[in-house]
## 1
Amino acid sequence: MIEVQGLVKTYGSKRAVDGVSFRVNRGEILGFLGPNGAGKSTTMKMITGFLRPDAGTAVVDGHDVTREPLAVKRTIGYLPESAPAYGEMTAEEFLSFIAEARGFRRRPERLAVVNRAIGLTHLESVRTQTIETLSKGYKQRVGFAQALLHDPSVLVLDEPTDGLDPNQKNEVRALIKNMATEKAVILSTHILEEVEAICTRVIIISRGQLVIDETPAQFQARQ
Ligand code: ADP
Ligand code: ADP
């Protein structure tokens, strides 16, 4: 589903990403670990088509990111690190607004995708509340719901449980696990416990290069 081969991104004389290769299959949850500044965001931005690689390729569900960035954006659901803005909108207004921006122009169709995303993320009880009044855990679920609107086959999640309390973390992890059965998921994190709890594989990036690509069990055996 995601096939990354020799990705390179240079800023000035600095190689932020220096020849990164890996793949993620359907049903896999890949944990992407690394210290701050190691190159995680830059790698994820190249996979989602927001940043053009200097060298190498990323193919997502058969679409080359450089040649078909729009097709890739349609395939991917992206959960940004920060919670959704538009705090004065209700959860359903926000989702409807994003759905319209994504090309669901007809109202019945838009309603259908919004309802589906609300159902998947268990937001029914708060759908008419404004986003600013929601707890962090619910805000994060609204973020997930927007990532799921177009029924993507690949999910790219930036620090999905960062800042949540232990209960909310567990809820969001259960959500990710459920969704992963028919999708390929890549999530960046700096929480080791998260990798052990839900990831099927882990890669570690350091100074732009992958230093580990293995199963959580292999990874744990090393600690
Ligand atoms: P991570 O997500 O692992 O924290 P990043 O991918 O954000 O790491 O950054 C990798 C390196 O590239 C860092 O040294 C960062 O300062 C640098 N970098 C990222 N974006 C830019 C940019 N737009 N211009 C210059 N340097 C950048
Ligand atoms: P986001 O969190 O939205 O992914 P980032 O924190 O990676 O954004 O970066 C915010 C903006 O600053 C981006 O345009 C990015 O390219 C740029 N940037 C990130 N790191 C650096 C850096 N070290 N030097 C210059 N620009 C940077």
## 2
Amino acid sequence: DGPKPLAGKKAVVTSGPTHEPIDPVRFIANRSSGKQGHAIAAELARAGADVTLVSGPVTLPNPAGVRVVQVETAQEMLAAVQGQLPADIAVCAAAVADWRVLHRADQKLKKTGDGVIPALQFAENPDILATISTAGPNRPSLVVGFAAETENVVDHARAKRDRKGCDWILANNVGPETGTFGGDNNEIHLIGGSDPARDEIWPRQSKTAVARSLVARITRHFNS
Ligand code: C5P
């Protein structure tokens, strides 16, 4: 089976969308297949890490050799991630809904028949990546986030890295022409620090290949 370069390392990976309920039958969500996060969890496990995958609702099978915690909402996702700390590695690949519905209805909202349309109020969801990046003594020693951008990809991603306090950002061009969302290919620009000399550009490759490249990069990080 080959050497296990990440044996003894504990990793937590977020994946998929979150669903934020409006009422018992309706929700707000982000568009996310979970393919990238699930592939990363699988590759970390293949490299010998002890992996917990915290996943929102997806239609993918559970990756082999990975502990899966299924969640619905951003708040549940944050609690599940925090429940896995301390860890050595955190990779936040989930597409978390930025807002949740402030007052979720206990019963299905009904059409009133008089043309009155319900108005939703929102509350801001926790930023899981930013929260664990600033988790003090519990902060994983390597925290990796993603940035999906449609323009000025690298500048926006570097600013995001600084703002959130993570170590690396994998910036992804999701312009409408790229077919990234739900598709199988990602072009990644790894932002490894405030100094662009630490950046890496990975050619367009499958999400599985991106996962392998990331795990190879993580392995080098811990072994150099
Ligand atoms: O700010 P933005 O959503 O573009 O940042 C994307 C990165 O932040 C991803 O790594 C995503 O998983 C993470 N994120 C998060 N919690 C949020 C929003 C984003 O962990 N509420």
## 3
Amino acid sequence: MAYQNLLVEKKGAVGVITLNRPDALNALNKALMDEMTLALDDYEADDDIHCIVITGSAKAFAAGADIKEMQPKSYMDVYKEDFITANWERATRCRKPVIAAVAGYALGGGCELAMMCDFIIAADTAKFGQPEIKLGVMPGAGGSQRLTRFVGKSKAMEMCLTGRMMDAAEAERSGLVSRVVPAGELMDEVLKVAQTVADMSLPIAMMTKESVNRAYETTLSEGVRFERRLFHSMFATEDQTEGMAAFVEKRQPQFRHR
Ligand code: HXC
């Protein structure tokens, strides 16, 4: 499929999606997000892909939802089309692991898209923010909720109320990103991490991701119960048999993803 606003490239078992609207700092318009849904659908359906990476350019992961596209909309427009939810949340429904590789601006919807991924690795040039309040609106794709869970109330509240940006070091300190790497090494490093994930058993990685995500959605005791049941179920997989046998036999496991 030929995309107008994305580049897609398979690197072994890693499916890379690069946002590609350079003239608009990768502002997220409907066409781009529709394509993102298709690209994620494709990678999810592709048995050869075990991990997905979403990235942007050196200057911008994405500078937010497309303000020029939003500007003429009325309340009725956004209400009737349920603006944002329809396809924006596709990344959160991915069952395979999804990593955000962020360099430059990740603002508004761009920061929200990065937070929908399973984890974020940032270049030292990354800048995160929820500047919507400066436009007379507020975050609309989960920013006020996910940022608060990532960095806590005080910092999230300050960022959403002032629109100030957080640099990569602050983002790492406050738990928004898993780590920061030099900008020139971002993609090499992220692809290495993605390949490491892709080399694990895919169903086990999917269940692991499901279990970590439960931590956000339920109580500790329910989450622990959920985790234990998933853990038990793994003993019905070939990959558990192989993984433990390989350890005992002092060799590398050959996971067959089942
Ligand atoms: C549409 C955008 C855009 C955006 C940048 N551009 N961000 N177009 N929507 N979000 C366009 C500019 O209009 C300009 O086009 C070109 O990209 C380059 O941008 P500049 O502003 O000239 O670049 P620079 O001076 O380097 O400033 C970079 C910037 C600034 C600080 C990131 O562009 C900026 O503040 N952008 C808006 C950030 C923002 O408010 N994001 C939140 C959006 S609301 P031309 O044609 O003039 O060259 C949102 C709501 C989400 O995300 C809610 C639910 C999804």
## 4
Amino acid sequence: KKGPVTIPVVVHVVYRIAAENISQAQVQSQIAALNRDYAAANEDKGDTPACWRGLVTNIGVQFKLANKDPEGKVTDGITRTKTKAASFSSHDEVKFTAKGGADAWPTDQYLNLWVCSLGEGLLGYAQFPGGPAATDGVVILNTAFGTTGTATAPYNLGRTAVHEVGHWLNLNHIWGDTSDCSGTDHVDDTPDQQLPNYGKPAFPHVTCQNGPNGDMFMNYMDYVDDDAMVMFTAGQSARMHATLTGPRKKIGT
Ligand code: ARG
Ligand code: ZN
Ligand code: CA
């Protein structure tokens, strides 16, 4: 697709206790964070080292809370479901009403974002394009969602969802999920990198003979803190747009 693509989003808030039933303002803050970062309108993009500043790319994708539900009725784009589950795993129970979660809205028309408590130390997880329709979408830990309310440092800039939506648009982790430099993210302008980076790394961090500049750890597809990830590249943008004209071509307008 040429020009900005707008993706309708439904946020399924699944909660057991009141604190997990996050506010509309917190939901809206997450949509704003997605729009900020996918437009490269984040003020901290200047933290990108000079050697890569020319790669910082406005993806031209925007997100909008749905204003019509699947039946065509007016909605604020948020569903709220009370559950008995103290937390969910990465096995998709949160995506099914029958399993204590909330069923997806048609996944060819909406990006489904589930927000809940997660076990296993998970911040979130995503399904890549091409998977089963019933589980398509992204799951985010409630305290790593948005920029206000229960969002908690160092995951309070909405970037867990920025990262997970990157997977949903077919981006891989920069290091390719191996630990011996053999993996790839299938993107040429992100350097090969050995492992995920965490926290707030110091530049440069050289691995896999990627000196002198080293790992592009400030990319959204690494594992650093929210305030240390600030950019997508042109190559990542091309890969996301290939998905929007290919397997996800129905969803954008
Ligand atoms: N661990 C998650 C994943 O593998 C995402 C990490 C997001 N990092 C962040 N700073 N919010 O998809
Ligand atoms: Zn990831
Ligand atoms: Ca690469």
